Amino acid sequence: MHPKTKILLEKLQRGEYVVNCEGGNSMAPKIKHREPVVLAPIESPQFLQKGDVVYFKSKGSFKTHIIWTIKKEKDKTRFLITNIKGKRGVWVAQENIFAKVVAIGKQACDEFRSSQ
Prior knowledge:
alpha+beta, seven-stranded antiparallel β-sheet, 2 helices, globular
């Protein structure tokens, strides 16, 4: 695991909000390449909804994508997480979702930081 990712996860597990930037255009135009986002730790997966943008782990890598579908199976909930266009989806268990995006863009992140 990349050292930056390890620090980010440790902060989220302590209940801290963090600012993160990722490369790529799979979430454009909602989130542009290297645009900062504020990640809020997931306090309870039951509050996650379709359309939420989340930071999650799949197949060993960590990404920020959108919840496309939620499926409840007995005592577990699984989330279909995709890019902004609903493509390249992957089913993810709730324990592999670590944060929800609560602010997007430099100005929103700066405002968030100043309010803390």
